[in-house]
Amino acid sequence: MRAGRISLLFLILGLMSLSFDLGFFAGVHSYNRPPPRKTISVQQSGGDAASKTSPQQVRISQVGQDKMRISWITDSSTPAKVVYVPWISPGSNASSASGTTSSYRYSLYQSGEIHDVLIGPLNPNTVYYYRLGDPPSVKQYTLKTPPQLFPIKFAVIGDLGQTEWTNSTLQHIEKSNYDMLLLPGDLSYADFIQTKWDSFGRLVEPLASQRPWMVTQGNHEVEKIPIVHPHSFTAYIARWRMPYEESGSDSNLYYSFDVAGIHVCMLGSYTDFNPNSAQYKWLEMDLKKIDRGRTPWIVVTIHAPWYSSNTAHQGESESVAMKAAMEDLVYRSRVDIVFAGHVHAYERFTRVYKDKADNCGPVHITIGDGGNREGLASKYIDPKPEISIFREASFGHGQLEVVNGTHALWTWHRNDDDERVVSDTMWLISLSSDPACKV
């Protein structure tokens, strides 16, 4: 009976994997992709990491203005405890905090022990040493808190995956001296194979354990299998807990936070977004509470882009219907930038509203080029729409340097022959500082 269940599971997974590749799943249109680079798998290393209670897949995320959530996984039970101290006074008495431990089951897979600990209050723009567990781990980690005031630098990547291209992207980001990373969906490309979530956690740990990673979900996080596993986002919600409660949200699939004068809304393209939905009502409330005197910039992230001139993923409800439901709300609130993923290429639009250039609309940027296993979306609509300023099907990442309350520099860095190449640049002026866009 067990062997039969396993055979059925692999048959279903095979069919669903095929549907992803052929473009039949969820109404996705098929398109030709250039061959991707090799998929990599990161195993748990030896030494101290071989212990059943040794931390792995360590990552941090911001919670409120002066706290961080540290998350990690162990193979067996151990106290969820963090000991931390500022690097400027390593000999001082260390602070400690305890948290919660959970796990999840996905069909025949049982996750490790997932630990979440909130530490703080922390000083801004400060490096801290920290150790995990009780007794504390042999390995010592470091994290740096974001600045409280401008300037601040974001790294932005979408559709990351775990290929040799991914590794190249991460290496470039590591050299960028960023303060916080934004990821608009499609993280691990585990696609139902839960051990790939573990591999992804190990792959990104060197960066995610040092700077806050703020993420939202994409279609590859859904992982819903009829009958076998009828629940969506099980692994994503369990592994990547974001500060949704602190922003008044009722779901880990959408939330907001403030950092150094920027209000960031991380939205869910694959959960209800119509005007009667909990997400829409939450976003409406969240945007109304923004004080542009304190946070003159507003950034929104989604997964499925509202604007795209790529032939890939055209006409999907997650793009078309979400845009129809929420674009007015975003426009009236004078959102400055909307980041999206999903389309495996890069594209930047002018400020736009209802398909036309509008100086008071947000700049839409598709950044779904992190390095996923499916390759690039290389075909574009011809002729290029006037509202599309720059488009290219290459792997890479973006950097948003917010200099002050009025000016920010956006650059897109192409991974060309494994060297970071700056291919697109623009200066932005915040809408809150434009008298013509006052609301």
Report on this structure.
- It contains 6 helices and 24 strands.
- The protein is α+β, with helices and mostly antiparallel strands and 439 residues long.
- Strands 14, 15, 16, 17, 18, 19, 20 and 21 form an 8-stranded mixed β-sheet that branches.
- A hairpin with a 3-residue loop joins strand 1 and strand 2.
- The chain is globular.
- The N and C termini lie far apart (64 Å).
- This is Purple acid phosphatase.
Unreliable stretches, pLDDT < 50, 5 or more residues?
1-34
The helix content, as a percent range, equals: 10-25%
Tell me, what's the shape?
globular
Order of helices and strands: HEEEEEEEEEEEHEHEHEEHEHEEEEEEEE
The number of helical segments is 6
Helix and strand composition category = alpha+beta
Q: Mean pLDDT, as a whole number?
A: 91
Radius of gyration: 21 Å
Q: What is the β-strand count? A: 24
Terminal residue distance: 64 Å
Strand content: 25-35%
Q: Summarize the main sheet.
A: 8 strands, mixed
GO molecular function: acid phosphatase activity; metal ion binding
Region (Disordered): 36-55
Domain Purple acid phosphatase C-terminal: 361-420
Family: Belongs to the metallophosphoesterase superfamily. Purple acid phosphatase family.
What labels describe this entry?
439 residues, alpha+beta, eight-stranded mixed sheet, six-stranded mixed sheet, 6 helices
Task: Provide a compact summary of the structure.
The chain is of the alpha+beta class and 439 residues long. Helices cover 18% and strands 30% of the residues. It is globular.
